[in-house]
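Renewal narrative, Specific Aim 1. Our central claim is that a sequence can be written position by position from structural information alone. The example that follows is taken directly from our test logs and has not been curated for this report. It begins with the C-alpha cells describing the chain, in the order in which they were read.
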C-alpha cells in the first residue's frame, strides 16, 4: 500500500477536528436545551413548597390510592361506611356499646340457628372460618403509630426551643382552630369532617393543581405586599426602648 503524504494527513486531521467540534457544540446545545425545561420546572410555584407529586406527599401506597380515588369502588365503599356510622351515632343517637352488643346478638343468633337447623336435618353444619388478627399487621400498626407519635413529639420539642417562629405561630393557630371546632361539635363529628376533607381536598387539588398553585402564589404575593405596607405604617412606628448591654 502507498504511504500517505504529510500534507494529506494534516488536511484529513483538520477535517476530522471540524466534524468533532461540530458534534461537541451540537451536543452542548442539546444539553443546554434539555437543562432549560428542568430549570423552568424548578421555578414553578408549588403549594407549601412541595417537590413531589400529591400521591408521594400522601405517603404513597394504598392510603394515597384511597384518598385520591384510584379505585373508586373501594373509596366509595369506605366513605359510605363511615357516613353510615356517623348517621347511626349522631343522627339516630345510637351508642357504640349498644351497637356492638346488638350486632353480636344478631350475628350469633343467625349462625346458631343455621347450624342447629342443618344438624337437625342431618346435613353438614356451615363452615365458619376462624378469624384472628395476624401478628405482623399488629406489629406494623403499632410501629407506625409509634413513629408518628415520636415525630410529633420531636416537632413540638423543636418549636418549644424557639428555633422557628413561623412554625410556632402555625401550630398555635392550628391548635386554636381545633379548640374552636371542638367546642362546636363532638369528636366523632370532627373526625367525620376530617375524613371527608381527606377524601375530597387531595383529589380536587390534584385535578386543579395548576390553577390552585397560581391562585395561592398571587395571594401570597399580595399578602407580602400588604405586610410591607403594614410594617412601614404601623410596626416601624412602635417605640422601642434601648437594648441594655448584657453582663457577662
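The sequence written for that structure reads:
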Amino acid at each position: 500500500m502507498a504511504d500517505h503524504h504529510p500534507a494529506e494527513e494534516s488536511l484529513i486531521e483538520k477535517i476530522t477536528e471540524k466534524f468533532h467540534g461540530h458534534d461537541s457544540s451540537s451536543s452542548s446545545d442539546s444539553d443546554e436545551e434539555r437543562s432549560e425545561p428542568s430549570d423552568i420546572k424548578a421555578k414553578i410555584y408549588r403549594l407549601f413548597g412541595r417537590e413531589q407529586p400529591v400521591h408521594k406527599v400522601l405517603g404513597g401506597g394504598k392510603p394515597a390510592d384511597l384518598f385520591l380515588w384510584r379505585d373508586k369502588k373501594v373509596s366509595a365503599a369506605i366513605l359510605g361506611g363511615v357516613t353510615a356510622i356517623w348517621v347511626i351515632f349522631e343522627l339516630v343517637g345510637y351508642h357504640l356499646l349498644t351497637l356492638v352488643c346488638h350486632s353480636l346478638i344478631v350475628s350469633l343468633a343467625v349462625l346458631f340457628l343455621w347450624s342447629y337447623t342443618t344438624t337437625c336435618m342431618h346435613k353438614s353444619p356451615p363452615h365458619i372460618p376462624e378469624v384472628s388478627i395476624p401478628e405482623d399487621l399488629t406489629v406494623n400498626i403499632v410501629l407506625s403509630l409509634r413513629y408518628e407519635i415520636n415525630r410529633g413529639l420531636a416537632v413540638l420539642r423543636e418549636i418549644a426551643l424557639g428555633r422557628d417562629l413561623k412554625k410556632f405561630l402555625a401550630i398555635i393557630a392550628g391548635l386554636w382552630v381545633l379548640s374552636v371546632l371542638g367546642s362546636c361539635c363532638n369528636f366523632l363529628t370532627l373526625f367525620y369532617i376530617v375524613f371527608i376533607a381527606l377524601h375530597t381536598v387531595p383529589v380536587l387539588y390534584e385535578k386543579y393543581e395548576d390553577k390552585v398553585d397560581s391562585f395561592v402564589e398571587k395571594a401570597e404575593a399580595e399578602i407580602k405586599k400588604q405586610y410591607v405596607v403594614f410594617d412601614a405604617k404601623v410596626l416601624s412606628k412602635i417605640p422601642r426602648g434601648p437594648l441594655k448591654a448584657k453582663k457577662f
